[in-house]
Design a protein that fits this description.
Length: 154
């Protein structure tokens, strides 16, 4: 649990249960979230969520600014949405490499491809049209090059 003085009152936020990896990791990560938000001078909108995205358990703090703050619940690593330094660390394959991966999955033509961030995870969205005029969209990890999702339009 964590406490924060806000507008003359004490804000109490309960921690979430997580699988035990080390006995202080989740609590430290949760408290680091508060510290990180204070360092960048944001106040909370009241929305603190625990989410799992592609195997990573994290806390998401929605702030009253246009940026959300994330904290890995196991490691305590904190980052801001659309953080350019984090993008440099995480994006390991190029857009052209992602296109080649999609083309190796399905014969067709690429209609659209872009890098996207989803809760701190970077992926390429590649839309294609097959030789039979069917549309398919791939989500490809910008870190590993793995195909994360394939969505066929009917």
């Amino acid at each position: 649990m964590a406490y924060k003085a806000q507008a003359g009152s004490l804000l109490h936020i309960s921690g979430h249960q997580v699988p035990v990896v080390d006995t202080t990791g989740a609590g430290d990560a949760f408290n680091a979230s508060f510290s990180n938000c204070n360092l960048i001078s944001v106040s909370f909108s009241g929305a603190i969520m625990r989410e799992t995205e592609r195997g990573t358990l994290y806390y998401k703090f929605e702030t009253n600014r246009s940026v959300d703050v994330y904290v890995d619940a196991m490691t305590g690593e904190a980052w801001r949405e659309n953080d350019p330094e984090r993008m440099k660390q995480r994006v390991k394959i190029s857009l052209e490499e992602a296109k080649k991966i999609a083309l190796n999955q399905v014969k067709g033509t690429i209609v659209k491809a872009k890098l996207d961030e989803d809760d701190g995870q970077y992926l390429y969205e590649v839309e294609m049209r097959t030789d039979q005029w069917r549309e398919v969209e791939f989500e490809i990890s910008a870190t590993t090059g793995d195909v994360l999702d394939v969505d066929w339009d009917d």
